[in-house]
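I'll show one example:
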Amino acid sequence: MKKRLLKSIILMISVMMLSACGAKDVETQDALKESAIAALENGKYDEALSEFDEALTYAGGRVTAREIDICYYKAVAQYLSENFSEAVKTLDGVIAYDEENADAYFLRGSIYLSEGESEKAIADFRKSVETSPGDNERVERIFEALCENGQREGGLSIVSEALAKMGDSDDELLWKGRLYILLEQYDDALDMLTRAEGAGIGEAEVYLAQVLAATGDKTGASEKLAIYMSSDTVTTDGIAAAGEEYMRLGEYEIAYDCFTQGIGYYSEEDSKRDDLTREAYRRLLGDRVAACEFLGQWSDALKYAREYIALYPQDERMLKEIKFLSTR
């Protein structure tokens, strides 16, 4: 309790120290926040940090949900600029004020993971899942992050815990199938996804294809993908997943067509919908580069990689890819 109170005081003091005016100017604060986020997305981390700090000067010595949100984004800028210790301090304060902030737990867990503090990372990831019930995309991202950093057992544990809390709605059947695939429990995945398919969830066919391919039935997998791609229920996320499955099957031309089709579906309206759709669009753009590489279309791959990095300039993996492609 004392530790939580201390962290709360630290965050309040930091905001008060930055507060130069007596009255809260919400409009100016929001404008500064949006400008800082734009700078953040363009890889201008120092500029973003400066504007987040300036936005906090309009807090008037008070800490509300608006200030907590600004502090969270400030932590993101600190993280991306590799100032991990300061990012953790900022997130400590955010969590002290908002113990249900799933994004703050996720980001702090990511920092701990990058610093090799796996136990702290897993604890924060677990808390992130607990405070965002139903966010199965988060569970999937956490599993992938832990596996990439040699913590597969921790990832399996978090996925298993999430599965134990899920029900049997149509959407949950789809996600249970997807999570069972991560656990490599293909019989359970097949059962859930077949039921989801029967309930009219079109994307179930994409993940059924994954199960069939993983169990040796590549012909059946291709058939399921073809059914999905010819349906009128395709989504940006579903097309991305279908294209990625075609890549695993070695069908690179079909995969390329999928990615191109998915990119064509995406619109400004989609960009405002949800994080899942926006992330699917990002995957499509990146996957299109990979498909071109497998097809030996090096000039196209370089062109698309440059288009990708113009939108996501902080993506170090794609920056390295551009250097490689420039030598081809």
Remarks:
- The CA atoms of residues 277 and 318 lie 20 Å apart.
- The mean pLDDT is 87.
